[in-house]
Amino acid sequence: MYVREIQPPRASPVEDGKPVQGTWTSAFGEVNLLDIRKPYRFPVPQMIRDSRIKEWESFFIQDDRFILLARFSNYKMYRHASIILYDKNKREQLHYSKAIPGTGWRMPRSLNNASVDSRSWGFFFRTHTWLDADTVKLNLDIEPTRKRPSFTAHAEFNLGKSVTTPMAVSLILSENRSMYAYKTMAPVRGDIVFGGQHISLDPSATTGLFCDYKGYYPFPMRTQGCTGSWFDSSNRRIGFSVADSQNKEPFSNNENALWIDGKLTPLPPVKITETGSQGEAEWMIQDMEGMVDLVFTPNTQIRYRINHLLPRSYYECPLGYYNGVMVNSEGEEIPVRNMSGTGERFYLRI
Fold first, then answer.
1. Cis omega (within 30 of 0) on the bond before 220?
2. pLDDT digits (tens, 9 = 90+) for 267-288
């Protein structure tokens, strides 16, 4: 059975100018990767070092009918916002993507009480990470166009210590460069209004996963991930988030996690492979410890591309369902049968 060391809480993932590696069950007091003294072998001005740090926050929210995805990224050369609402019954989607030049919004260095907001033509979002009050909030307001109805959403994650155990990791990518991730699963309450419809998010039936990332990611950056949530026959709330990324030492520490009624199980590294023709391929998600054995079958594809000569990014977010089995830290096998979720493939060359 795979076991990962859980370290005592600490204030920062950087110590004496060097990145530390490990897994924790509480957020860092502050994450400032510019504190790494020599991320490169040669001296680099702080402005250039800062431009190499990419950061984003992502939200996955699901009830028995809808999936809401939101991702807000700061790649320093430009910012990107992506919103997806998917009706699982009708297999209909509403999605919105916006790229804005420059570094206007920055992800917070501390999640204790910080917000990020952006208001541009026809689009407003605000995230408020308030771990001191055991909550994370998301607000969206998108004005209508000829092709798309107006869209408004408010969601609030309940992160009480008796409700869920988060996971924070600091991972070595190359030499003296690292990445950080904070992930948690929790009940979500809120409201969504679009096209004359009003959807109430009932926390007893709605699950959310919130993720916060920062890193000196490689050039180019490549990552592939999977996320899903469901309620089992005993009405336990289950969710997972795994990634096949460029972490240098994935066995000792990685960003993969499973939650059952808020109880965290750190998972081993996984390999994601695809079988079948492009666009219709199934994803095989497996590890070497027998704790993750899943098949993801996409039924809806959403893709974004941004190409500006040298800067280039590609983001693919298929929606579909999972089948297979997962195993928690106590050795219990968790069957997964036609459970909804998303995949993610991300390429960034900036």
1. yes
2. 999 999 998 766 678 999 999 9
pTM of the predicted model as reported, rounded to 2 decimal places:
0.95
Round to whole Å and give the CA distance between 39 and 176.
Answer: 5
Query: Residue 139 burial (CB < 10 Å; 0-12/13-18/19+)?
Result: middle
Q: What is the pLDDT of residues 116-153, one digit of tens each?
A: 998 877 889 999 999 999 999 999 999 988 888 899 99
Measured from the Cβ of residue 106, the count of other Cβ atoms closer than 10 Å reads 14
Q: Which are the contacts of 55, defined by CB distance < 8 A and separation ≥ 6?
A: 73, 74, 106, 107, 213, 214, 215
Angstrom distance (rounded) from CA 123 to CA 11 = 35
Q: Which amino acid is at 75?
A: Y
How far is 173 from 112, CA to CA, in rounded Å? 26
